[in-house]
Known about the structure:
Chain A is an all-alpha fold. Chain A is built from 10 helices and no strands. Chain A has helices at 3-20, 30-37, 41-47, 51-74, 89-99, 104-109, 113-130, 138-142, 145-165, 172-182.
Amino acid sequence: MDRRQRKTREAIFDAFTELLSKKDYSQITVGEIIEKADVGRATFYSHFETKDFLLKELCEELFCHIFDTANEQNSGHRHIFSCDAPDSAFLHLFQHLKRNDNNIAFLLSCRNNELFLGYFKKDLKLLVENQIEIFESRKSNLLPQDFWVNHITSVFVETVRWWINNGMKESPEKITSYFFLSV
Amino acid sequence: MDRRQRKTREAIFDAFTELLSKKDYSQITVGEIIEKADVGRATFYSHFETKDFLLKELCEELFCHIFDTANEQNSGHRHIFSCDAPDSAFLHLFQHLKRNDNNIAFLLSCRNNELFLGYFKKDLKLLVENQIEIFESRKSNLLPQDFWVNHITSVFVETVRWWINNGMKESPEKITSYFFLSV
DNA sequence: CTGATAATGAACAATGTGTTCGGTAACGAA
DNA sequence: TTCGTTACCGAACACATTGTTCATTATCAG
Lengths: 183, 183
C-alpha cells in the first residue's frame, strides 16, 4: 500500500475517532472529518464510499487483531476448556480491552457504543461457536443450540458494556469470573 | 387533544412505521414521511422537533401500555416470585409480544431493532429492578447488584430478539422457560 | 355562531452529500 | 536519477435534506 494512502487513511481514522469522543456518530459530517484530518473531500470519497463504510472498516481493522489472537489461543492442540482456565480466550479479550490497544475500549465506551458493539458481537459470535464446548452444562442441554450460542455471546458483550461503562475498575481476572458466573 | 392533532399524529406514526419496514431508520427522510402521511411539512415539525423525537415518542407510546400492565401484574399483595409462576410479569410480556399489539413485535424485529430495543431495555430495567427478588440465587450473591440487574435485563432483551428474529415459533410459555433457564 | 387553533403549501436559507476535473506532488521500480 | 504511475488537491458542481416562516384556509370546541 502506498505510503500516501496509509497516511491519509490513518489521518481519517484518527480524526473520526476523535470526533466520536465528542459527538454522536449521526451528527458527524464528512466535512468535519476531512477538516480535522486535513485531507481533500475527493480524497475522502476515494478511500471510503460513505461514512458508514468508514465506520465498518475502522471496526474491521480494530477487531481483526484482537480476535485473531483470541482465536489462536484456541487453536492447536491446547484445549483448555475449563471455565476457570486462567488463560481462556475470554480472559485474553478482557485483558486486551483493559490495555486499551488501539483505543478499542474507548470506542466501545463512547456515546455510540451500540454501533461498535454490533460489529464486535459479530466477530465474537464466531469465537463463541468455536469454544461452545466450554459452556456445556445441564442448562445448555435443555436449550436450542443457537439460542445458547446467542445467549453466551450476548452475555459477554453485555459484560463488556457494563465493565467499560463502570470505568473498568475490576481486573480482567475478576470480570472474567463474573462472566463465567453469570453465563 | 384536538381531533385534528390526533389524526395527523396517527398518520405520521403509521407512515413512519411502514417506512421502517422497508428501509433503515437513517435512510428515512422527513420528506418521505410527510408524503406518505399526506401532511404538510410545517405540520410535521409542529408535532415533532426532529425525526429522533418522532422515534422516541413512538416508542414511549408503544411501550407505555405494555409495561404498565406488566408492572400492575407485580403490584398489590400477590407476590408470585417463583420462576415457574405461570403468570409472571415476564410471561405476560412475551404474551403481549406474541399478540403483536400495536405492531410492537414487528418494530422490534425490523432492520433497526437496535433503536427500539434500546428504548425497550430502558423500561424493562425498571421492571427487573422491581422483581429482582425472583432471581435471587447462589450466583446473584457473588455478583454486584447492578451487574446482576443489567444481566437479567440484557438476557431478557436478547431472548426477545432471538425469539422474534426466529419467527416467534415457540409459545410464550416455552420462551419464558428458556428465559428463566438461561438467566 | 365565533374565537381559537391546527393544517396547508409554498418559499426560504443553510447545510450536507457525493462527483467531477485539471493540475500538482509524491511514489516506487528500473 | 529518471520515468511512468498513482494519489492528493481544491474548487466547483448539482442535488437532496433540513428546519423555519407566513399568509391563508379549514376545523375545532363551547
